[in-house]
Structure formats: C-alpha cells, structure tokens
Amino acid sequence: MKQSAILILLVIFSMQLFAQPKILELPKPDRKGGMPLMEALDNRCTTREFSEKELPEQTLSNLLWAAWGINREESDKHTAPSSNNKQEIDIYVVRANGTFKFIPKGHKLEVVSGEDFRTFCGKQEFVATAPLNLIYVADLSRTDQKDYSVEPLASYSNAGFIAQNVYLFCASEGLGAVVRGWVDKDVLQEKLQLKTSQKIIMAHTVGYPKK
Ligand SMILES: Cc1cc2nc3c(=O)[nH]c(=O)nc-3n(C[C@H](O)[C@H](O)[C@H](O)COP(=O)(O)O)c2cc1C
After folding, report:
1. Can you tell me the mean pLDDT for 187-208?
2. Separation of 178 CA from ligand 1 center, angstroms?
3. Superfamily of structural domain 23-207
4. Which of 77, 94, 177, 192 could form a disulfide with 72 if both were Cys (CB 3.0 to 4.6 A apart)?
C-alpha cells in the first residue's frame, strides 16, 4: 500500500477515535441505607435557596441511581416506571465543571461539554449558582410517537416519577431541591446539542440548602 493511502487510513482512524464520546465512571452507588421512607416523605419539600458547595461524587452517584438507575440488572429496568417500558427519559447533569449525560447501564456519565451551562438552565436566580441542575429530556425516537411537534404527555408522567425519586433522595440526604417547568427550552436545547427527537421536559435544581 502506498504511504499516502496509509496516512489517509490513519487520519480516518484517529478521527473516529476522537468522535467517540468520552465516558466517566461514577462511583458504585450505595443501594442500602438512607432515611426510612415515611420520614423522607415527611421531610420532602421544595427549596429555592442553595449553598454553592459541590456535591461529593458518591452523593451524585447515589442521587442518579435513586433518580433513574437500574435496580433490576436482569431486565435492565429502573428505579422509576416508564410507560410501555420505553425508557425514553435521559438525565442531563449540568455542573460547574461541565455537562454530562447519565448512562444508567453501567452507571456512567457521557461528557456533553466541558463548559458550565448552569446559567442556561433557567432564569430563576439560584439556577446558575446551585451546584447541580438535572435536565429531564425525552428522546421520542424511543417511543411510538412519530410526530415530534405533539407534547409528549406520557414523558411528562415518566419524568415526574424520576423527579419524585430525586425529591425523596434529597429529603433523605439533607439536600434541597426544586423541580422546574420554567426553563427556556429553545436555548437549552441548542446548548445541549439535542436532536429534533429530544424534548426537554423539566429541570431539577439540587444542592445543599443555604443555612
Ligand atoms: C410540574 C412542576 C413544575 C414546577 N416548576 C417550578 C418552577 O419553574 N420554578 C419553581 O420555583 N418551582 C417550580 N415547581 C415547584 C412548585 O412550586 C412546588 O412544588 C410547590 O410550590 C409546592 O411546594 P412543595 O414542593 O414544597 O410542596 C414546580 C413543580 C411542579 C410539580
């Protein structure tokens, strides 16, 4: 083979290598413990004043598992139900150090961007400074809905179950949380580089409550 052909093949190979999404392993989630369920329900509430203190990686890992992790490995089913088991909700994790997509299978994060997109997650003041915004995104290509312009009602229910898991985990861990429908979806859609089949459903801001 000519040298130039080898060079072209090498370039193509390295381009493919760089095109692979960067994956970060999360610490193994702790699936035991926490507050008794009735106490967590008793403590569940919305918080809108947050400290800027970062969440430890283990807490983030546990939170994502509680939200939408796989709790039955034999069937790849989750901690929250989904209509017809379509599992179309993805959680985007927006932090100061970048934006990531939660991959429940294998409990990992896919890097979306190294930039801080928190300011694009909502107009309420606390959104840009709280350590974590979760964005619930429905990928309708995984559902039977072919017309992406129609509001995906089932996805709102499916994301609601995930949001309640987050609220209860936060109550159990002494974290504050506010689920939010008030999001500039067009701006965030572009920042997260979402496809037309992907619809932002809601956001959820999480952090330690301001003392
Ligand atoms: C679908 C939905 C959308 C919401 N959107 C917002 C929002 O954009 N901003 C906000 O501050 N709170 C939002 N909330 C939180 C509610 O205001 C809050 O749950 C309500 O005031 C009751 O308070 P509690 O959660 O402490 O019981 C939303 C709640 C739900 C269920």
Report:
1. 98
2. 6
3. NADH Oxidase (3.40.109.10)
4. 77
